[in-house]
Amino acid sequence: MHKTTALRAAAAATAALLTATACGTQRGQDDQGTAADGACKGQQTTGITDKTVKLGGIYPLSGPASAYGAISNGVAVYFKYVNDHGGIGGRKVEFVVRDDGYQPPKAVEEARRLVEKEKVFAVFQTLGTPSTAAVWDYLNKQKVPQPFVATGASVWGTDTQHPWTIGWQPNYVAEARVYAKFLKSEKPNAKVAVLYQNDDFGKDLLGGFKKAVAGSGVKVVAEESYEVTDPSVSAQMANLARSKADVLLNVTTPKFGSQALAADARNTKWNPLHIVNNVSASATVLKPVGFKNVQGVVSATYFKDPADPRWANDPEMKAYQEAMHKYAPDADPANQFNAYGWAAASSLHKAMDAMKCPTREGLRDAVRNLKDVKVDMLLPGVTLSTGSDDAFPIETMQLMRFEGERWQLFGQPVDTRKEFGPLGK
Q1: Spacing of C-alpha 138 from chain mean position
Q2: Signal sequence span per UniProt (predicted)?
Q3: Residue 207 burial (CB < 10 Å; 0-12/13-18/19+)?
Q4: Who's near 13: CB < 8 A, 6+ residues apart?
Q5: pLDDT digits (tens, 9 = 90+) for 243-289
Q6: SS3 track for 299-329
Q7: What are the pLDDT digits (tens) for 373-382?
Q8: What percent of the chain has pLDDT over 90?
């Protein structure tokens, strides 16, 4: 991971770049629409007028990670709901969704289409670490905001060269820290077997976990990776079972998360505490395995579960449920990916409300200057905070355990900034 000095240098470099480009206009684009005189003059207004704003999103609507496609439903429903209630700052939102099939080259093609053909104001959410990494050079060169990408890779907050890109959800290292803290308290001599996706996503969380347990009695005793193109992870799970580890850390995307949970359930001779990472913790991942087979599985979250009755009378949850029924009647409101999309879109709404200039530069700056912003779909105690020395909007999570037919929160929210210090230190 980056050292403290590197993070500070990143903050300084980003601040300098923001200042240098604050009044720059992308070559070949017209100043039009909403940019006011003075501080906003000369900034980019492509995709935004006084009455409209056009946003793009790139999701795997097909392919091995297609379960994540539901996130785009939640985003689209939020924007339709907002449009019927006056829009964002009086602007109606047009949301253009493109499918990359979880293939980085396709993501680049779709990013170009959104920028050059659709003329979007921003590419709000590219989903997945590989796809986001594939397009951020292009989007930053074009000076197009890439806010709140749907991936928790830590690089979105530690990088020094891409000020137009920022994450949203807790980064994978922060999530790993939560699991490490839990095991050091509850199973201080745990022997951990790890299944992980062989890319930046899997390696980020695994590396963060190893660093967080270093020096403790918690040890990683076995590791198995898989490729996103693999048909299954049965062989990897069989190898991990031979380790006799008493904890299984499941770092997977939904398809492989279900496979690993099913393999664990079938192996009656191995009964580890099963921890599944947040991105595969949706009930839609667990349901095919059979709820009776996933009792006691542990994960962590930061937004409200639409299937949890504790939120039945929550005003935001009521608005979400009603909007899902109205605008996406065929979608399942209980699907956590839909709720994730709603929460992310609501977060973008707050950032756009905070723009000092209704421009691409204004959005770029706003997402990096959030001060304990409350988003009603996030758990109590979880807010958005960024600054010149912190490019990670959310770093607080709460543990949950699957009991009966739903996740049950337990313990207290863990602010990893306070528990472990800023990432990179």
Answers
A1: 20
A2: 1-22
A3: middle
A4: 160, 161
A5: 999 999 999 999 999 999 999 999 999 999 999 999 999 888 999 99
A6: EEECECCCCCHHHCCCHHHHHHHHHHHHHCC
A7: 999 999 999 9
A8: 87
Here the tokens at position 2 are: 């980056």
Tokens representing 336?
């956590």
> What DSSP line would sit under 340-399, residue for residue?
HHHHHHHHHHHHHHT-SSSSHHHHHHHTT---SB--TTBPTT--B--BTTB--S--EEEE
Predicted pLDDT of residue 160 = 86
CATH number belonging to the domain at 173-301+399-420, selected among 3.40.50.2300, 3.30.390.30, 3.90.480.20, 3.10.20.30: 3.40.50.2300
For range 167-179, the mean pLDDT? 96
Integer Cα distance of 15 and 45 in angstroms: 22
Which CATH number does 4-170+313-394 carry? Answer: 3.40.50.2300
Q: What residue segments make up the domains of the chain, in order of their start? A: 4-170+313-394, 173-301+399-420
